[in-house]
Amino acid sequence: RKWRSSMARPLPLNTVSMLRMASDELRIGPGQAMHLAEQLYLEGVLSYPRTETDKYPPAFDLEATIRSISSDAAPWSVSAKALLRDGYSPPRVDGTDVGDHPPITPMKMLSR
Predict the structure, then answer these.
(1) How many helices (H) and strands (E) does the chain have?
(2) What is the separation of C-alpha 32 from the centre of its chain, rounded to a whole number of angstroms?
(3) Residue 67 in contact with residue 41, Cβ under 8 Å?
(4) Which pLDDT score, from 0 to 100, does residue 94 have?
(5) Which residues pair with residue 46 across a beta bridge?
(6) Which residues are registered as beta bridge partners of 106?
(7) Is 48 considered catalytic here?
(8) Is 70 within 8 Å of 109 (Cβ atoms)?
(9) CA–CA dist 105, 103 (Å, integer)
(10) How far apart are the C-alpha atoms of 12 and 66, rounded to whole Å?
(11) What is the pLDDT of residue 67?
(12) Displacement of CA 106 from its chain's centroid (Å)
């Protein structure tokens, strides 16, 4: 008998989960993480970073979002183009939409 394990896909990012991830993965505090997220928002790289929503609305255009970040210069372009070509799983539907803003979402690649 083989043992199998699986993990659920993560929920989309809300502010609290973004700050926790910034602390755990990047070792930066919440003030600095929020400042950086707001700067990325002002550059159009991220959607609005102050949200408690971690569920995309039914009309959210995930394909357009993937298309917008799949430029050849992006390090993830091969993966993004494979998703567009081969298909992708829809976002999880078990989060919470509190109606303030959609989850934190990449909008475009940051230009240098």
Answers:
(1) 4, 0
(2) 19
(3) no
(4) 92
(5) 106
(6) 46
(7) yes
(8) no
(9) 6
(10) 14
(11) 93
(12) 6
Q: Render the burial of 45-73: b for 16+ CB within 10 Å, e for the rest.
A: bbbebebebbbbeeebeeeebbeebbeee
Supply 95's token pair. Answer: 């989060």
- Give the type of residue at 35: H
Q: Which two tokens stand for residue 39?
A: 């700067």
Active-site hit among 41, 48, 56, 88: 48
Residue type, 67: R
* Tokens (6 digits) for 68: 């917008």
For 41, counting Cβ atoms within 10 Å of its Cβ (0-12 exposed, 13-18 middle, 19+ buried), the class is middle
In angstroms, rounded to a whole number, what is the distance separating the alpha carbons of residues 78 and 85? 10
The pLDDT tens digits for 57-93 are 988 999 999 999 898 888 889 999 999 999 998 888 8
Closest alpha carbon to 50 in 18, 11, 2, 87: 18
Q: Give first-to-last CA distance, the chain, whole Å.
A: 52
**Burial class, 27, CB count within 10 angstroms (exposed 0-12 / middle 13-18 / buried 19+):** exposed
